[in-house]
Amino acid sequence: MTELGIMFSGAFLAATLLPGGSEVLLVALLNKTPEAWVALVAVASIGNTLGAMTSFYLGRLGRLAKSPEALATGKHAKGLAMIERYGVWALLLSWAPVIGDILCLLAGWVRLPLISSLLMILIGKTIRYLIVAAAVLQWMA
């Protein structure tokens, strides 16, 4: 598997509800092939966004199993409050540890619009990977 395939797979899996740090993988691959930084950031952003959209759709499916009251009072209450207050804009934080996965799941659960949710997730995750890449490349210079 190529570096780009590894980056895509790692980023996709890290964005689902499985644990994983795709930033560490990006750093390792940037150290190996710094000239491929644009492709690595693009592939990581796309893979991570598609993984987040998997959580988004799981949220939509979960709506059939959970009542609104169950989520409003449970461990997801803080994320649900953010989604209700900020709407799709909260998904700019989809990259954040712990809360990011929950925000994507809840965005699907409350049926936020698909395209605007996708764009906000992509923007948030791309900015995160650009910051990581810039830091690594600056450190290597």
TrEMBL record:
Membrane-spanning intervals of the chain: 36-58, 86-109, 115-137
InterPro entries in alphabetical order: DedA_domain, VTT_dom
Presence of keyword Nucleus: no
Recorded coiled-coil stretches: none
Superkingdom: Bacteria
Domain VTT intervals: 33-135
Keywords assigned by UniProt, alphabetized: Membrane, Transmembrane, Transmembrane helix
This protein's GO CC annotations: plasma membrane
Keyword ATP-binding annotated: no
Name of protein: VTT domain-containing protein
Source species of the chain: Shewanella baltica (strain OS155 / ATCC BAA-1091)
Taxonomic classification: Bacteria, Pseudomonadati, Pseudomonadota, Gammaproteobacteria, Alteromonadales
